[in-house]
Amino acid sequence: MHALRGVSLDVARGNLVAVMGPSGSGKSTLMHTLAGLDKPTSGTVTIAGTEITQLDDADMTRLRRDHIGFVFQFFNLLPMLTAEENVLLPLSIAGERPDSDWLEELMAKTGLSDRRKHRPSELSGGQQQRVAIARALVTRPTILFADEPTGNLDSKTGGEILDLLRDSARDYQQTIVMVTHEARAASIADRIMFLADGLIVKELTDADQAQVLEVMSTLQS
Amino acid sequence: MTRVALRGLLGRKLRAALTAFAIVLGVAMVSGTFVLTDTIKSAFTTVFTQAYKNADAVITGKSAIGNGNNGNGSNAPTLPASLLTRVQGLPQVGLASGGIQDQAQLVGRDGKVISSGGGGGLAFSHTSQGQHFNPLSLTSGNWPAGPDEVDIDAATASKHSYRVGDEIGIVARGPVQRFRVVGTVKFAGVSSLGGATMAIFTLPEAQQLFHKQNAYDQINIAAKSGTSPAQLVAAIKPLLGPSAQVRTGQAQAAQATKDTSGFLNIFQDFLLAFGGIALFVGSFVIANTLSITIAQRTRELATLRTLGASRRQVLRSVLVEAFVIGTTASIIGLFLGLLLAKGLNSLLVSLGIDLPQASTVFKTRTIIVALLVGIIITMIAAVRPALRATRVPPIAAAREGALLPPSRWAKYGSQAAYGTVVIAVALMLVGLIVSSLSTGLRLLAVGVGAVALFIGVSMVAPKLVPPLVRVLGWPASRIGGSAGKLAQGNSSRNPARTASTASALMIGLALVTLVGVLAAGLRTGFKTNVNKAFVANYAVTASNNFSPIGLASEQAARQVAGVTAVVGVRGGDGRAFGSNITVTGVPPNVSQAIKIDWTHGSQQIPAQLGANGAFVGKDYAKAQHLQVGSPLLMETPKGQFLLLTVIGITNPPQGASPYGDISISQARFDSAYQNPQNLFTFVNIQGGVSAANTRTLNAALAGFPDAKLQTKSQFIDNQLQGLTLLLNLLYVLLSLSIVVSLFGIVNTLVLTVFERTRELGMLRAVGMSRRQVRRMIRHESVITALLGAAFGIPLGILLAVMIGATINFGTFTIPVPTLIVFVIAAVIAGLIAAIWPARRAGRLNVLEALSYE
Q1: Which among B481, B759, B770 is the nearest to A57, CB-wise?
Q2: Number of folded domains in chain A?
Q3: Which of B763, B764, B766 to mutate against chain A (most A CBs within 10 Å)?
Q4: Least confident segment among A5-9, A190-194, B569-573
Q5: A183: in domain
Q6: Residue from B373, B449, B507 nearest B26 by CA
Q7: Which of B400, B492, B758 has the CB atom closest to A76's CB atom?
Q8: Nearest C-alpha of chain B: how many angstroms from A129?
C-alpha cells in the first residue's frame, strides 16, 4: 500500500493551489512530502531548483528557513511571545534582521497593527491565524503551505482568512499550496487538485463552490 | 479504576522511572548507612568477643575519668604484678595471665609513622602462658621471644611490604626503636581492623617500653571447672583496690562494644541525616513531577470523570500510582544501598577515617526502615498533586488545552507562603536562642524550622521567578540568540513549575552554602586568633596534628644549640564538678610561646601556678561560677584528687584556645598523671625561623617520626586540616541531594518537551535547527539551575548568619570564591541535566511533532 502513487504536480510562481479529497485520500501526505516533512519512497520534490528528498536534516532546515512557510490548523503560536514577536520568530531563529517596511506592510495587511504587543491568549482565533499567516509570509518564502487553515475557525472568520490568503497570492505573487476538505476554501484557488486513494483523479481551474461540491460528491460515493 | 491507574503507569514507564529515581537515592543512603554502620558494629563486636572469648573474668585498671574502659589502657591505672600472684592463688582460678595493652606506632619504610586513620597503633604483650586467651593467630613466623623481636599485623605487613626477618622502627614512649619482625598476625573473624596497626612484644619488653615494670594493664582469668564466671568474679573482687575492676569475659566484651557503639550511633545518625535531606529533596521532585503529569493528563482524567469516576476514585488512582512508584523505588534504593555502603566506606577511608570491616550485615531493620521511609515520603509528596487531580471537571474532556481550576485555598496562597516563612524563622530562632529548652527540643525546633523554611521559600518562589528570570536569563538571551531568548520565555511560562524544580536544587545549595560560610568563618577566626596567640618560632605536634605525643621529643629539642625556650604544653583528661574536662599542664615560661588575653591576671600567672594554682577559661569560669580565689577539686584518671585554687582567668580566642578547661603547672601535671604527654611543644631559637634552624631542629627530631616540626603558618594549616576534612565530607554527602535535584530538572525538562511537542514541531518547521532546539533546552535548564542558586545561596547565608550568631564562632566571612564555585557548579549541573532532554527534543520528528496531539 502506498499513500501516494505516481502523483505529479507543478506549482507555478504566484499560483494558489488547493488539494482536496476525502479522509485517507493522501492529501496530507502529499503536502507533507512537498514540504519535505515526509520522504517519498521514490520520486523527487524540487523547491526553488533544489531537489529536497535527499537533503539531510541541517540542509532541510536551511531550506525551510529560506523557502518554505507554514500555516497550521491550530495556529501553533508561542504563548509567551507577543503577536509581533511571533511574526518575527522565523527571522529571529535564522538570525536575520527584519525588513521593517515589509513588517509594517504585513501587519497592516493582516490587520494586526494595533495588536502587536498582545499575546496569543489575548487574541481571537481569527487574529491568531492572521499572526500565523504573517509569520509564514515574513521570510517571503518560495512556497507557503497551509494545512486546513480554516479548520479551527467559524465560517465568517474562516472567510476572512481565505481572503487574506487569496490577496497574498495576488498582491505578493506568493505561491501557496493549501490542503482543505472545505469546498468554500478550495474555491478561492487558481487550481484545485482532487485526490482519491493516492492518485490525482481530477483537476479544476478557477472553479466555484458548486463545481467543487459536485466533484467531491462523485469521489465520496 | 485502580487498574486504570496501574495500566497508565505501565504505559508511561519512562515517566514513572524518572519519578522513582528521585526517591531511590535517598532510600539508598538510608539503607547504605545502616548496612555500613551495622557492618562496622559487627566487626567491633567480633573483635571484642574474640578478645575475651576464653576469659571467664578480666581485671582491668579503673580510670576515674570516663567509663572505666578507654580501650587502650594507656590512661587507666596499671595493675601491680603482685595482684596476679594473689589471683593465681585463689582456689577458683584455673589459669591467670597478665598482659600489657598500650599504643605504639609503626614506622614505614619512608621513615614516617604509618598513619593510622582513627584506629591508632595498638600494642600488646605476648606470653606463652597467656596464649590460651590470645585472640590473635599467626599468619607467618613465630611469636616474639626476645627483647628486639616484634610481630606486626598481616595487613600492615603486606601494605608496607614488611616480611619476617625485616627490621621495623617503632615509636612507643621514647625515640624510635628498631625491632626485627619475627611474625605476622591477624585478628580472628574480621576482614579489616580499619586503620589500626598492631605490634606484639614479649611481656618484659612491653613493660619496659611503656614504663610499666612490674605491672599489667589487664589480667585474664579462666575458672577451674565447676566455677561459674560470676562466682569467679565474686572471688576476685575482694582482692582489688579502688583503681581496679573485674568483669566476666562476656561483660567485658559487652562493655567494650558499648563504648564503641556510642560513637557509631552518632556516626549513624550523622549519615542518616544526609539520607533524610536527600529524601526531603526527593519529595519536592516527586511532588513536582506528579503535578506535571497530572496537568498533562487533565483530559484523560476528565474523560474518566465523564465515564462516571468519582473524585475519590481519581484521588485513589493517583495515590495508588504513587504507592507503586514509591515501593519500586524503595526496593531499588534498598539494594543500591548495599553498593552505596561500600562507596561510603571508600569515601571515609579516602578521607582518613578507616574503620574495621567484617562481612556485610543486612538486617531486617534496614529493610523495614528503608521501605517504609521511601514509601511514606512518596505518598506524602503525592497528596497535593492527587488533590489537584480531583478538581479536574468532566467538561475538560471536551476542551482543547483545558486548565485546572484553582483550588478553594488558592487565594490564600501568598499569605500561607509568607506565613510559613515567618513561622519557620521564628521556630529556628526559638531553637537557636532560647537556652532554657533542652538540647533535644532546641535541635528539633531548628530542624523543623529549617524544613518549614525551605517549604515556605518554595511557596514564595513562583512570584520571584518572572523577575529573576529576566535577570538570570539575560546571559542566555545574549549568548544563545533566539534559542536563548525562547528559553528565557519558557522559564517564566509556568512559574510554579520552574519554582518547584529550582526549589529542589535550592535545598542542596543552601546547605552547601551554610556549611561553606560557617567553615570560612571558623577558618578566618582560627587564623586570626592563632596568628595573635602564637608567639613562638616553631611548634612540634604529633604527625596527625592532634594526638598527644611523648615527652622525649621535647627533651631532644632542648639539647639543640641556640634554643632559647622549649615550652611543652601537656594535655590530659580530668574530672571536676561532676563532668569530664580537659586539663593542660603549662611550664612557667609558657607566655614566651603563647600570648592570650586575660580577664583576671596577666601573662605572669603561668609562672605563679606553683603546686596548687590553676587558671581557667572565661567560659568555664562562668559556667562553674569560678572567680580568682575559688577552690577547685579535680580528679585525675589515677583517681587522685587535686585541691586547686583559681589564680587567673583567661579570655581565650573563640575556637582557638591552646588551653584546656583547667590549666595547672607542668610540674604538678607530671606528678599527677601516669604518662604525661604533650599536646604541643613550642620552640624558640636564636635567629627565629630560618632554613638553617629548621634543618637543625628537624635533624634533632629525626629519631621521633611521630613528631612534626612546623612554623606558625604550617601549624595553622595543619590544625585546619581536620576542618577541611570535615568540610569535604559534608560537601560529598550533600552532593547526593544535589544529584537528586538534578533528576528533578531532568524530569521537568523531559515532561515539558513532551508537553510542547507540537510547539517544537512548529519551531522546526519555521526553520529552527536541531542544534538550536538543543541549545534552547540547555539554556532553560541552566536558567532553572541559576534560579536554584539564586534561592539557595542567599538562604544558606541567612542560615549561616542565624546559626553562626548563636554558636558565636567569631568571624563571619562570606567565602566569595567558594560561592562563585557553587554558582558555576550549578550551571554545570544544569548543563548535565539538559543533555538527555535536549537530545530527545532535538530528535523529534517534525511531522510527528506537528500531528501530535
Answers
A1: B770
A2: 1
A3: B766
A4: A5-9
A5: yes
A6: B373
A7: B758
A8: 14
Main-chain phi, psi angles of B609, to 5 degrees: -65, -40
Secondary structure letter of residue B567 according to DSSP: E
B/e letters for B319-357, b = 16+ CB within 10 Å, e = fewer, are bbbbbbbbebbbbbbbbbbbebbeebbeebbeebbbbbb
For A95, left (φ over 0), alpha (ψ -120 to 50), or beta?
left
Contacting residues of B for A78, CB less than 8 Å apart: 486, 489, 759
Which member of A35, A37, A93 has the closest CB to residue B768?
A93
CATH number of domain containing A179 = 3.40.50.300
Q: CA B252 to CA B236: how far, in whole Å?
A: 15
Please indicate if any CB of chain A lies within 8 Å of the CB of B388.
no
Question: What's the alpha-carbon Rg for chain A, to the nearest Å?
Answer: 17
The average pLDDT across B167-184 equals 91
CB nearest B769 (choices: A32, A38, A61): A61
Instruction: State how far the Cα of B268 lies from the Cα of B821, in Å rounded to an integer.
Output: 30
Determine contact: B373 vs chain A, CB below 8 A.
no
Q: Is this complex's ipTM strictly greater than 0.90?
A: no
Q: Do B767 and A37 touch (CB under 8 A)?
A: no
Q: Are A80 and B493 a contacting pair at CB < 8 A?
A: yes
Q: What is the DSSP pairing of strand B93-99 with strand B218-223?
A: antiparallel
For the record, the C-alpha cell of B745 comes out as: 530538572
Integer Cα distance of B503 and B459 in angstroms: 9
DSSP string covering B283-328: HHHHHHHHHHHHHHTHHHHHHHHHTT--HHHHHHHHHHHHHHHHHH
CB contact under 8 A, A61 and B770: yes
Cell of B821: 564555585
Q: What is the mean pLDDT of residues B270-296?
A: 91
**Domain that residue A56 falls in:** 16-77+141-220
CA A212 to chain B, closest CA, distance in angstroms equals 27
pLDDT at B68: 41
HSE (side-chain half, CA atoms, 13 Å) at B723: 20
| Residue B750 φ then ψ, to 5° | -60, -45
Sign of CA dihedral A194, A200, A202, A204: positive
- Most B CBs within 10 A among A31, A37, A71, A138, hence the mutation to make, goes to A37
Model confidence band, residue B430 (pLDDT cutoffs 50, 70, 90): confident
Note the pTM of the prediction, 2 decimals: 0.84
> Is residue A210 assigned to a domain?
yes
Q: Is the pLDDT of residue B456 over 60?
A: yes
Cβ contact A80:A153 at 8 Å: no
Q: Which chain A residues are closer than 8 Å to B400 by Cβ?
A: 74
Please give the residue of chain A at the shortest CA–CA distance from B491: A80
Residue A83 lies in a domain: no
Is there a contact between B182 and B201 (Cβ–Cβ < 8 Å)?
A: no
pLDDT of residue B216: 94
User: For the residues of A136-175, what is the DSSP string, one character each?
Assistant: HHTT--SEEEEESTTTTS-HHHHHHHHHHHHHHHHHH--E
Q: Which of A32, A76, A92 sits opposite B482 (nearest CB)?
A: A92
Q: Does residue A168 lie within any of the structural domains?
A: yes
* C-beta atoms of B489 and A57 within 8 A: no
Q: Which residues contact B707 (CB under 8 A, 6 or more apart)?
A: B540, B541, B542, B543, B549, B553, B681, B701
